[in-house]
Prior knowledge:
The protein is an alpha/beta fold.
Amino acid sequence: MVMTTSDKSSRMRLAQLQRAMLACTRCDALVRCRTRVVPGAGAAAAAVAFVGIAPGRFGGDRTGVPFSGDRSGTLLRAMIAAAGLRRVFITNLVRCNPRDGRGRNRDPLAAEIANCRSHLEAELALVRPKLVVCLGRITWLHLAGREAAFDPAGAAVVRAGRWLLYPMYHPAYVNRGAYPVQCYARDFARLRSALQGLGRGDFAAAGGGAGRIAIR
Ligand code: SF4
């Protein structure tokens, strides 16, 4: 792929933005338990952005790169490669690893997700993905809202503001045996088809709720 002047500018602005994120101290509890701030990583501009929940203590918190170095990252990246997805950006709702009192991963609080929302929005604004894949129910809830059912099997795209959102299971859900890995691979193949459909402009508003889009 030929990198345009606009792409180079986006990459430089993204790097600048993310350097500023590294000093963020908005969440008191996360500042105390994180090893580092973990900004998103990948292509700018991107065809697709994957948004998880938070860096894991054995993954991004250790490596500095979201979805790397742990089982969730290994599975997600294997699925992306097997599906032949290109120009991928990977990030999270929050950029710091949340831990409970015993040092285990915990879900981020709603206030922590709200604190980090502008960082996510700023990343996505520069990366400009055609589709934003929400990995897991928590991410879906916060980006698509309560009215839109989390339904990876239905795989309907939902428009939320300027973004087209696409539901998928979080790789940790698959790793713990709650969803078959073969089905996950099929879901990634379907995501690739959805992206191709968007590339052709081959989509339309569908029934079943405001903002829902059908990929043909
Ligand atoms: S989670 Fe986000 S908002 Fe909170 S301290 Fe980390 S970078 Fe800042």
